[in-house]
Amino acid sequence: MCEKSKIVSQWLKKVFGQQPVPEFEVNTRTVEILYELAESSEMRCREAEMLIEDHKQKTEEYSSDGAHLQEVLLQAVGLQAGGLSKPTVDLLSALEEAAEVLKIRDTSLGSYMPAISKLTDDVLEAEKTDRRLQRELSAVRKKMTATVVLRKKLQDDLMKLTHMQQVEAATAEERLLNMDFMKNKSRDLTYRNKLAQEKLDSRQMEDSLTHQAILQLSERIAALKEETLPLKKKLEPYNDLSPSPALARVKIEEAKRELVILFINLVLFWHLLLLLFIFVGYSNFSERFSFSQGCLGCPAGAESGLHEQFISIINKKKSI
C-alpha cells in the first residue's frame, strides 16, 4: 500500500509538473485507481517512445535510400547534384509533389494521364453530387418553409383551441353551478310539493279539483266546442224563428193584419186617384202619372191587379 502510494505520488508530480497536485481523499480505492492509471500511462509512454524511435530509424533509412536513389538517377541521366538550376529543381520538386498527391508509382506520362483522368472523373462526380445536394437542399428548404408555416398554423390553432377549452371550461363550470342550483331547487320544490300534497290529503280534496283534472276538463270542453261548430253553422238560418209555436202564430197573425191594413190603404189610394181622374181628365192624369210595376211601394201582384181594375173602370166611363 505504501509503495503504491509512493508510485502514485511520483506519477502525479510528473503529470502536473510545476503545478500543485490537487487534494484528494486517500483511501484504498482511490490509490488502486490512480495506481492503475499510472501503470497504463507509463505503458503508453514507453510505447510512444518506442514508436518515436522506430520512426526516427525509418526516417534515417528513407533518407539514405533517397540519397542513394538520387545519386543513381543523376548518374543515369549524366547530371550532377550541384549542376541543376533552381527552376529545374523546383520543377522536379513539383513533379514529386504531384506524384505524391496523385499517388502514382513514377512521374512518367503514362502514370500521370490515368491519374489526372481519374481526378477529373472525381471532380465531375463531386460536381454531380454537389448539384444533387443543392437540389436536395432546395427541397429541404421548401419543406422547412412549409413546416414553419404549418407549425405557425398549428400554434395558432393550439392557441384557439386552448382559448375555446378555457371558455368551455368556464361554461361547464357555470353549468355545473346552475345544475347544483337546479338540483337544490328541485329538492326544495319536491319537499314543498310533498307538504302541499299532505295538506290536500288532510283536507280530503277531491281529485276532480286538481290542476290536472281541470286541464283534462278544459281539453274536453275545447273538443266539444269543436264538435258543436258544424251544428251551430247548420242552425244559423233558424236563429230568427221564435222559440215557441204560440208566439210564432201570434207573429203570423200580426203580419196578416199589417198586410190587410196595407192593402186597404192601397185601395183607398187608388180610389182617390180614380176620383181625381174623373174630375181632372184622363189625358192630363196619364201624362202626370206612370203605372210602372213596383211604384208606390206596393207588391207586384197587388199593383198589377189594381192597375187592371183601374183600366176597366176607365173603359166603362168612356162607354157611358
TrEMBL record:
Pfam families: HAUS1. It is found in: Cytoplasm, Cytoskeleton, Spindle. It comes from the Eukaryota. GO terms for cellular component: cytosol; HAUS complex; microtubule; spindle. InterPro entries: HAUS1 (IPR026243). Residues 38-65, 116-143 form a coiled coil. Its main location: cytoplasm. The chain crosses the membrane at residues 259-282. Keywords: Cell cycle, Cell division, Coiled coil, Cytoplasm, Cytoskeleton, Membrane, Microtubule, Mitosis, Transmembrane, Transmembrane helix. GO terms for biological process: cell division; centrosome cycle; spindle assembly. Belongs to the HAUS1 family. This is HAUS augmin-like complex, subunit 1.
